[in-house]
Amino acid sequence: MEINISEAEWEVMRVVWSNKETTSKFVIDTLGEEKSWTPSTIKTLLSRLVEKGFLETRKQGNKFLYSANCVEDECLDILTQNFLERICERRTHVIVKNIIETDNLSKSNIDEIIELLKEKRKTAAEVITCKCLKGQCSCAAKHG
Q: Which residues form a coiled coil (predicted)?
């Protein structure tokens, strides 16, 4: 599955994910001033997300309630996979290191990552094989 949404649409999704259902007014109140977006811009973003299938609407009285059709963590997993498919498998560790070095992680986050790495190490290959096309990466692997 491809997640093809803009950064602005992602911001709207974060508001919707944080609430079971929400109105356009709530999204406008949450993002409008902070992002300098007009109400019509936010309503356009909501409409696009409905068209793309990320949101669904339900009419309640004179307003529409928006809810997510996808779980945030599942979308993050798909985005991560889509990103990793675009880089050489031999460079994945660079991304992981960068996230660890630059992101704020709690001690429990770090403990969870350490345990995951210990499990991963049990079945890890000694060397990762590059699957890039010849001339597509700089990992120094020999490409037939």
A: none
Domains and CATH numbers, the chain: 7-68 (1.10.10.10), 88-134 (no CATH)
Vertex 34 angle, CA 30 and 37, to 5°: 85
Residue-wise pLDDT for 35-87, tens only, equals 999 999 999 999 999 999 999 999 999 999 999 999 999 999 999 998 899 89
